[in-house]
Backbone:
């Protein structure tokens, strides 16, 4: 028999949790840790509470729902090196597991499984337009379980990853070279409590034909494969920028639509948050003759991989009794973790040379918003500015000097930081944006050193050559495609929640089989996204539209902070300026605000979704399906 | 372990490691052994409280309703005039669509958030008025037990005013397969064909409506 301090009978498991929480509390008290120590260990939240409001109790599941707080075991920060994901290597098409790739889905029954070999349901569109099949470069990736250490002080974790690692391997692709990626579902049925071994892989930001996009309902089962054809072609190739006579279609398109930093992740309808939380995510880079990966050529951006480093940020909870990754399954508001992973490790260390680096930042969620700063704990008054060169997967027209970068879930930013100014120092990448529940940030920005220290950067490697461009000299990258075109239709979307807690877009529920509206191929549309409705003060939604990027015509979100200028670099009706004068694929829609987006829909046909990329909202159906077709409708409130 | 009184807590504190232990490498033995997915789910979300069905039978939530089953769960109350009628009507249609699998491969549970008023007899009338078939139970219980279930299953709102208003209780459905620890949620207001399709993803393979 077990009893609590009030003499009430409790279960053994409850007692174990209470005892673990008690031990944690006692350890902290005995260690005499300062407030700063607690921050450094990630034990003090941005609001200044201990990681869970009840003290370091076991997970606060019963925390009246939605606050998404947790109380992971303590870990010592900055003891493990920042992992760099391996580059994915192609194989010969003959070495693929299973039947040879084909244009039509391979629906033949695999005798070993009793179901179709392939999960795809629609033929590849690219070959009919003149793209090679099979393409010249072929990869095979396996979704499978793997074991990792996220901290030296936590037990080995079983994750699900592409090739069994998380983040998965980095694809390095080139414009003009189409590739085929065979995804094989080798996931186990045993899931440790969350995760669905039924998957669909979305190439986020890709100008990808629908059948290879990773649509949420294009999922495939254990034992099946799914061939994704990624054309790596510039938008406009089949519309306003067709190939010159005699030139191959692979080289067509509008150079000003070139992209750089993409990522891939699982997108299984209803189960995306669990599967991504479990590790099914990775980077996908696109290079071309300008963004070359070599600082001696093109735009002279820092050389990959030596000085061009991807960083995937993710916050996670760990069970205080088992030390294992824990997912708050029935939380529908959004989940916040109290442990901060960069490339799969809690609060790692990176040693750098005193020169310029390109960092590619990605917020992979599930629900947190970040505002990243460079912090020197010995000089917290300093405003350590750096250069933002991209927004989502798109280079800005020219670098913009910024004090910070804010990223909602799935947003990306490439930045250039010159570490010569920090030679010999130890500095930190710090999130100073306050967020106390899964619904969105408060808008408050904490003082330097009071936020979450995510990555320790030690500038102690020797001086080396730096042939990369100095962003202060004002280099120009791509120009923005014109938005001075009348839209065929302006559509309005209100992201809301019903009185009984169900997400809706224009008061309608999600359904993969219902096409909410048809966009006409090769047309221009404006979309107005509104976050106005019931319980409106609380929610910020990072809205992602698949396939085509947008430019923000008005309502661009900016950085939080700055007193009354709560959202500078933009605001409710302001046009895009600075880092928002760009092409994007995710837009943060702030409470009671709206944004107006400009789109050109081109080139491919088929189904795509729009959804909130707070993946917990997405899984609870803040999503709709729209289709790109030869004839579209003009429904203004679909 | 013996009865854990306040004195017991104080005694326990005396055997804790010294201050330095917090930042030293933690012994792996400090963590308890991993639980299976089923155990994790059971411990976190499925308390074994006793409920009463609309047929007047006493059942234990985990042992009798969840264990070894695929289920759909919602919360409702009989006097609700807002979203409940739509969700209940949708579930009636889902039951029709899934046919004889309901009661064999899948069980539907509607738990009242108003146990003071929703007696088994009231819930029985409610079920009859909607033409609810076998394999679908309406459940009531002690208010504290219902409150515990409501918290565990995530049917609470962080805003105390919203949370206190029964008419704003969540219309989301929980669905899952206990042996596979495969759980998610879908919208009770959605198209019933879509709800049935979503649920069928976690049903035993032989009974799925789609390949």
Residues:
């Amino acid at each position: 028999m077990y009893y609590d301090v009030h003499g009430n009978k409790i279960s053994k498991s409850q007692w174990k949790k209470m005892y673990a929480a008690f031990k944690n509390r006692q350890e902290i008290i005995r260690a005499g840790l300062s407030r700063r120590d607690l921050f450094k260990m990630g034990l003090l939240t941005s609001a200044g509470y201990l990681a869970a409001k009840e003290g370091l109790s076991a997970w606060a599941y019963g925390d009246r729902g939605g606050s998404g707080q947790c109380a992971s075991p303590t870990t010592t920060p900055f003891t493990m090196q920042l992992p760099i994901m391996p580059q994915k290597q192609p194989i010969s098409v003959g070495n693929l597991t299973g039947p040879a790739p084909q244009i039509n889905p391979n629906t033949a029954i695999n005798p070993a499984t009793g179901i179709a070999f392939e999960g795809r349901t629609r033929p590849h569109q690219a070959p009919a337009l003149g793209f090679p099949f099979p393409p010249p470069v072929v990869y095979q990736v396996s979704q499978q379980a793997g074991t990792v250490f996220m901290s030296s002080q936590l037990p080995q974790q079983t994750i699900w990853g592409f090739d069994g690692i998380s983040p998965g391997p980095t694809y390095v692709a080139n414009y003009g070279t189409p590739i085929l990626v065979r995804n094989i579902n080798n996931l186990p049925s045993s899931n440790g409590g969350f995760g669905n071994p039924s998957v669909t892989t979305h190439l986020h930001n890709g100008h990808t034909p629908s059948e290879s996009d990773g649509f949420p309902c294009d999922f495939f089962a254990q034992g099946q494969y799914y061939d994704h054809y990624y054309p790596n072609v510039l938008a406009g190739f089949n519309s306003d920028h067709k190939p010159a006579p005699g030139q191959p279609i692979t080289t067509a398109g509008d150079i000003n639509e070139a992209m750089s930093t993409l990522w891939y992740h699982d997108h299984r309808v209803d189960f995306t948050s669990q599967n991504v939380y479990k590790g099914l995510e990775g980077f996908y880079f696109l290079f071309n003759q300008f963004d070359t990966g070599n600082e001696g050529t093109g735009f002279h951006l820092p050389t990959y991989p030596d000085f061009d480093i991807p960083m995937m940020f993710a916050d996670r909870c760990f069970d205080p009794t088992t030390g294992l990754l824990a997912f708050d399954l029935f939380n529908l508001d959004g989940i916040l973790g109290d442990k901060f992973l960069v490339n799969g490790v809690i609060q790692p260390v990176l040693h750098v040379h005193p020169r310029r680096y390109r960092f590619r930042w990605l917020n992979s969620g599930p629900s947190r918003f970040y505002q990243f700063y460079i912090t020197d704990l010995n000089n917290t008054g300093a405003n350590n500015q750096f250069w933002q060169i991209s927004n989502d997967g798109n280079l800005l027209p020219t670098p913009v000097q910024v004090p910070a970068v804010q990223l909602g879930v799935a947003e990306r930013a490439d930045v250039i930081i010159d570490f010569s100014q920090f030679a010999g120092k130890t500095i930190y990448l710090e999130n100073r944006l306050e967020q106390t529940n899964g619904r969105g940030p408060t808008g408050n920005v904490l003082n330097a050193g009071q936020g979450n220290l995510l990555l320790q950067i030690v500038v102690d490697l020797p001086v080396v050559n730096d042939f990369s461009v100095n962003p202060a000299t004002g280099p120009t990258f791509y120009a923005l495609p014109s938005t001075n075109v009348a839209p065929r239709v302006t559509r309005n979307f209100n992201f809301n929640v019903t009185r009984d807690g169900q997400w809706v877009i224009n008061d309608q529920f999600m359904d993969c089989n219902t096409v909410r509206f048809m966009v006409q191929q090769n047309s221009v549309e404006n979309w107005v996204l509104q976050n106005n409705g019931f319980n409106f003060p609380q929610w910020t939604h990072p809205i992602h539209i698949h396939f085509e990027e947008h430019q923000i015509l008005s309502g661009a979100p900016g950085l939080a902070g700055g007193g009354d200028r709560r959202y500078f670099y933009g605001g409710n009706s302001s046009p895009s300026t600075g880092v928002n004068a760009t092409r994007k694929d995710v837009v943060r829609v702030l409470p009671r605000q709206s944004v107006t987006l400009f789109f050109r829909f081109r080139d491919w046909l088929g189904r795509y979704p729009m959804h909130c990329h707070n993946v917990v909202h997405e899984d609870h159906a803040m999503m709709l399906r729209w289709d790109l077709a030869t004839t579209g409708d003009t429904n203004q409130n679909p | 372990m013996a009865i854990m009184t306040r004195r017991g807590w104080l005694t326990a504190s005396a055997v804790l490691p010294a201050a330095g232990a917090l930042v030293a490498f933690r012994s792996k033995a400090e963590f308890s052994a991993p639980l299976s997915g089923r155990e994790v789910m059971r411990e976190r979300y499925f308390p074994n409280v006793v409920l009463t069905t609309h047929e007047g039978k006493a059942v234990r939530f985990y042992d009798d309703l969840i264990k070894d089953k695929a289920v759909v769960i919602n919360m409702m109350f009989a006097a609700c005039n807002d979203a409940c009628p739509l969700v209940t009507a949708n579930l009636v249609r889902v039951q029709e669509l899934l046919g004889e699998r309901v009661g064999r491969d899948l069980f539907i549970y509607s738990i009242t958030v108003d146990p003071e008023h929703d007696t088994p007899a009231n819930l029985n009338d409610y079920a009859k008025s909607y033409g609810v078939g076998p394999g679908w139970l309406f459940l009531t219980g002690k208010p504290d037990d219902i409150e515990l279930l409501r918290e565990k299953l995530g049917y609470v709102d962080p805003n105390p005013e919203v949370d206190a208003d029964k008419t704003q209780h969540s219309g989301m459905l929980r669905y899952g397969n206990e042996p596979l620890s495969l759980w998610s949620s879908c919208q009770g207001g959605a198209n019933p064909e879509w709800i049935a399709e979503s649920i069928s993803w976690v049903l035993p393979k032989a009974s799925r409506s789609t390949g």
Notes: The domain at 35-207 of chain B is CATH 3.40.30.10 (Glutaredoxin). The CA atoms of residues 2 and 8 of chain B lie 9 Å apart. Chain B has one domain: 35-207.
